[in-house]
TrEMBL record, chains A, B:
One annotated GO molecular function: calcium-activated cation channel activity
Lineage, broadest ranks: Eukaryota, Viridiplantae, Streptophyta, Embryophyta, Tracheophyta
Sequence ranges assigned to domain CSC1/OSCA1-like 7TM region in this UniProt record: 371-643
Residues passing through the membrane, by range: 12-30, 101-123, 156-175, 373-397, 417-442, 463-484, 572-597, 650-669
Protein name: CSC1-like protein At4g02900
Protein's cellular compartments: Membrane
Family: Belongs to the CSC1 (TC 1.A.17) family.
Record region (Disordered): 720-744
Organism of origin: Genlisea aurea
Keyword presence, Ribonucleoprotein: no
Keywords: Calcium, Ion channel, Ion transport, Membrane, Transmembrane, Transmembrane helix, Transport
């Protein structure tokens, strides 16, 4: 077991390496050549045209201004300085709410850590159980933990009290934060300019009729049932084929550009390519001519497909975007049930046009219901039994396995070097590959579930990923053994025994989780800020591909907050902090460092780097709140189990009452705030409508909304370039402020 | 253990006694003197003024027409003959949906019983495990059950298959029935005439303002946010005091009438009463003068209280009934969120005026939330730990207990006769009293939960009662031992062991449940039809109190379908039928007899007797559906446990898949139908509005709605006499038909 000195040493090493990374970042970001990697957001905003530098040629690539190097650390205070209101306008509410998760962690754990070190650590340290013991499984970390308190001691009362303090403080902070985010969301919605989605409702499961087209039916239905407010509607086409063609056309165009550039640089030789797979096999032809011809073919095909879409009624999906004369009308329609058959004419508030997930709009209700069932079962199996196929692959990837399947490879793998690789590397590789593609698998599963917006997809994926991490990382580390073995254990153990089994092993795993926090959490931060992959990719593209300024723009990969994979990881640290705050408070400083660094760095990233793909207005906050509360409840249950093995069974009813209070708090929060994230209140809609009418009485809303919800493939515009969104004038404030932050 | 012959004998005895009851009923109902006990519904409808009979004086009390006695059995086909549409108009949808629960039982269990006796019984009978056994704990009932099939036998496949058939058939019938009831509900709502609740929304949690009164605030808010549709509103007064005064006044009036009547009959002596407790202690005074004076006092008090209500703004509750110009407007307001604070201005579709539970309208959101928490915890304790106080009372009610607490009674209880009573009667009495007042306790708990309508109260009470019956009757009988002992067992046993423990004892309890069905279920039917208590009470009142025709009207106690206590009992038989259909199909005929008799008799009762207190439009059906499905899931889990002890572990995944499919079916049903019971679709509202406007373009809706939602105490009208509700002309059809059914 790692002793306190070991952990201090590890923390020291980790901190130094992070600081090295940060220094490297501080150096790299000052080089004009990296400007587009570390400040793409500003290029996309249009406030920065080209990297600034001294006039010399070298100055275009390397920063020669010595003064700026002396102020290398200034990015940190700069990142923290931008006021939140401005940040919301600059990066959107989603991003701001996202970094508030880290802030939430700090708010919860800093006071708890202070209290725990002031009260609990002395109580544990003087507990004296481990004093006489020469047991090697205990180290001085355990002296700081509850393990050092004798069973049945009155000192355990301090731990129960601490659990109460932790619960009440966490709930208080969560409540304030939920209130805060709700207020921000409402302000954000209120302050936004006119946006198409405010007037629009997504209608699904439109019944097919033989007499009318979908379009006519929608028009009739809404003219009758919303006579005062209905304005227009846009039907949805089945654009799967067209989208594929557009994608293929883009790929071909890319190749054509590449070969044209090659030819331009080296005019002596026309580039050649092969017509077969990956350009490696088949007949050799002139590349430029070949791709031009292909491009023409596909353009014709695309035109034909568009034509077909417009003419063939079978290509029209039973879904539509219906727009209303006022926000009030849209809000009413989105919140009400239209017909007596509740699976027909389903209405929901539309998301932003760029957030719409077009492929899922057509799924009928029953199919959707079956799909969700299948995905629920799949998630269960994926979470608990994923180790089985991986173990199978690992057994194949062993020396014996390879010899069996590919006997002809036997002489090769008999070689010492290759044998070492196979034995040491391959088995782990299967697991690594699985973990890397896991988010993609989960995302596909969420897609099959049939959500209609990208933001909803991300939220559902996050929920699945959280379950996976909870079972396989948290419980997996504590109980040791694959998830299905845990499951087997749980099913064959009394419900009152399970928290005991886990509770007992929790203090022993404290050092493991401290190390995990450093290796996974701290290292993640460093990787985040230095953006190694985008840095390399950008420079490669810049060197080999970029020709014009526009190309350079496209070579930038700003990325975005990947909510689906990062939020569940943050939740793991909330869980660890809450569980160990009473048991082994030593872990808290490590978690606080994680939250503090993450907050600063992500604040920097959303200001300078990330370009969000959609804006949902912090719609994910109810999930965040629920998961932190889940962590809190788990911590109470596990403490209950641990204390009941410590001959402090009297604590069980006390902690049970706490658990019930927490569940109640969860329900209360849900009732108090959640609807603000789902519904659009009529009063707010009415206010904005009234203001709008006063300011622009003659606004042509029809023209404004007519083309707002059209599949990007039909517009011929790429999905990643949403139509320009009306933004208010405050934007200029951001751009002016920005200048003072440039390295100069 | 009871053998097959024993059970047959018991069934014979029970059937004979039921038939005796039915004969007694057939005789009693023909007597004109009992007419108001067995046909009160027709008196309340106004289609029957006085009992018909031959002209002779005796004929007024006893039926002398011999012919009618020969056709004594005709009430049964008569009860079944009325078509359902007419029945809905006659008795309301609530009652009709209620008797459809019995019909649902028949639809589910008749085919299952046929199949089980055709397939499962032969399979069990020839199983042969119990052939050689001379074990006294087994009887020939067990030969028909799964106990007779050897462990690990291939025959068990038949049981698994049967479980599949039962599940699919039950789900199919439930789906069809849900669809049917939904359709009926929508038709019912569509066919109803104009009713105030269609135009009205209940608004709660109106924020207090210092500048405006509640009334002004409501008017402003809805004029702004529903400008096109808002019509008027009615504020709610805190009428608790007034209602008490009205109640007291009624009591005093009753006494006055009683004494006036006594004086009238015996004019020689003016009646006396005493002023103290219950008229037993204190000064003796002239009764008529005394009550007249008291009545005057209370009338003055009442007038003062009414005056205060109208003037004091503190007596106005932050809730209001808001009425709209159209059903569409009300439907929109009820379904939408009004403000950004989701716990302010809560709107819900109003219930009928007579269904409103006035006392709960004022409870603020947070208080409501706390109350529900407390009631949830209380329900848990009541369900699992109710035996503890009862055991305590029982120990007090023993000989030793009485000697300890009341030593002076020692000589008395030493007497043999009294000793026998104390020992044999008192301990059981405590439990009996508790079971009798349990529905009242549960109802008070639901009241504290703060529901705003009587129908919701009944539904919530039924849910609590179902839990109680499930735990204490079903599981209590199987596991034997008080509920908290079961709970202790469950907590200390592996989750996979619990179904096994229960599963094993289920076949052994079959005879017990067969007896239970006869004693509780069959006997309940007989008690229902003969209406012994109302019969006696009516004749007592009729003899001693009734003076005028109006008095006689009031002496009738038609009663109503008591959903809160009867539905959970029906659910117990669904549960028994589903659990035993695969294990011991012998129980099914007994359950079918229960459902068949109950259906006929309740159909008779809702036609001739019951007078419903409110009409919720079968709003309870989602609960019924959910509970039957709960029973189905329990049956699958228990079968899983039983089969896994029969060395047929291979069946577990098969049954697990079935369980998941059932859960999915539940969710699907919920999504498919439930909203029809909660929301009022806009299309339906619009249709009715349009028809209304076409028929009566000049309808003065304001006058119609103005006083619709006023507390009965404020109107000076008794709560049980709701304002007359507009009914359509079809009513006359019922009244004309009725004549043919009279004994003549």
């Amino acid at each position: 077991m790692a002793s306190l000195t070991d952990i201090t040493a590890a923390a020291y090493i980790n901190l130094v390496s992070i600081l090295t990374f940060l220094l490297a970042f501080a150096f790299l970001r000052l080089q004009p050549i990296n400007d587009r990697v570390y400040f793409p957001k500003w290029y996309l905003k249009g406030t920065r045209g080209s990297p600034k530098g001294s006039g010399v040629l070298v100055g275009k690539f390397v920063n020669l201004d010595v003064k700026t190097y002396l102020k290398f650390w200034t990015w940190m205070p700069e990142a923290l300085r931008m006021p939140e209101m401005e940040l919301i306008q600059h990066a959107g509410l989603d991003s701001v709410a996202y970094i508030r998760i880290y802030l939430l962690g700090l708010k919860i754990f800093v006071p708890i850590a202070a209290l725990a070190f002031a009260v609990l650590v002395p109580v544990n340290w003087t507990g004296g159980t481990l004093d006489g013991m020469k047991d090697l499984t205990y180290s001085d970390v355990d002296r700081l933990s509850i393990s050092n308190v004798p069973a049945g001691s009155i000192r355990l009362l301090a731990h129960v009290l601490m659990a109460y303090v932790v619960t009440f403080w966490t709930c208080y902070v969560l409540y304030r934060e939920y209130e805060n985010v709700t207020k921000k969301r409402l302000q954000f919605i209120a302050s936004e300019g006119r946006r198409p989605e405010q007037f629009t409702v997504l209608v699904r499961n439109i019944p097919r009729s033989f007499d009318e087209s979908v379009s006519e039916e929608v028009e009739h239905f809404f003219r009758v049932n919303h006579p005062e407010t209905y304005l227009l509607h846009q039907i949805v086409y089945d654009t799967k084929n067209l989208a594929k063609l557009v994608e293929e056309k883009k790929r071909l165009k890319n190749w054509l550009t590449y070969y044209e550039m090659r030819f331009e640089r080296n005019q002596k030789k026309r580039p050649k390519t092969k017509t077969g797979l990956w350009g490696l096999f088949g007949k050799s032809v002139d590349a430029i001519d070949y791709y031009r011809a292909e491009l023409e073919d596909i353009s014709n095909e695309e035109a034909a497909e568009r034509d077909k879409l417009m003419r063939d009624p079978k290509c029209i999906v039973p879904a539509a975007f219906v727009s209303f004369r006022s926000r009030w009308g849209a809000s009413v329609c989105a919140q009400t049930q239209q017909t007596s058959n509740p699976i027909r004419w389903l209405t929901e508030w539309s998301t932003e046009p760029r957030d719409v997930f077009w492929d899922n709009l057509a799924i009928p209700y029953i199919k959707l219901s079956v799909r969700r069932l299948i995905m629920a079962v799949s998630t269960f199996f994926l979470t608990f039994f994923f180790m089985i196929p991986i173990a199978f692959v690992q057994s194949l990837a062993s020396i014996d396995g390879i010899q069996k399947v590919f006997p002809f490879l036997t002489p090769l793998i008999k070689m010492e070097a290759i044998k070492a690789i196979v034995q040491g590397f391959l088995p782990g590789l299967a697991l690594k590959i699985f973990m890397a593609i896991l988010p993609t698998i989960l995302n596909s599963m969420s897609r099959i579930e049939g959500h209609t917006s990208c933001s909803a997809l991300d939220r559902r994926t996050a929920a699945k990923y959280y379950l996976f991490i909870l079972v396989n990382v948290f419980f997996g580390s504590i109980i040791t053994g694959a998830a299905f073995q845990q499951l087997h254990k749980f099913l064959n153990q009394a419900p009152s025994e399970i928290p005991k089994t886990i509770g007992v092993s929790i203090p022993m795993k404290a050092t493991f989780f401290i190390t995990y926090t450093m290796v996974d959490g701290w290292a993640g931060i460093a990787a985040e800020i230095i953006r190694l992959v985008p840095l390399i990719v950008f420079h490669l593209k810049n060197t080999f591909l970029v020709k014009t300024e526009e190309d350079r723009q496209q070579a930038m990969d700003p990325g975005c907050v990947n909510f689906a994979t990062t939020e569940p990881r943050i939740q793991l640290y909330f869980l660890l902090g809450l569980v160990y705050s009473v048991i082994t408070p030593l872990i808290l400083p490590f978690i606080i460092v994680f939250f503090a660094f993450s907050y600063t760095i992500h604040r920097h990233q959303i200001i300078n780097v990330y370009n969000q793909k959609y804006e949902s207005g912090a719609k994910f906050w109810p999930d965040v709140n629920r998961r932190v509360l889940t962590g809190l409840m788990l911590s109470q249950i596990l403490l209950m189990g641990l204390l009941s093995t410590k001959k402090a069974a009297i604590s069980t009813p006390l902690l049970l009452a706490l658990l019930i209070a927490t569940i109640w708090f969860h329900k209360f929060c849900k009732g108090r705030f959640e609807s603000a994230f789902v519904k659009f209140p009529l009063q707010e809609a009415m206010k904005k409508d009234t203001v709008d009418r006063a300011i622009e009485p003659n606004m042509n809303l029809r023209a404004y909304l007519e083309d707002a919800f059209i599949h990007p493939a039909l517009k011929g515009i790429d999905m990643k370039n949403p139509p320009p969104i009306a933004e208010d004038d405050n934007n200029s404030v951001v751009s002016t402020k920005r200048k003072s932050r440039r390295p100069s």
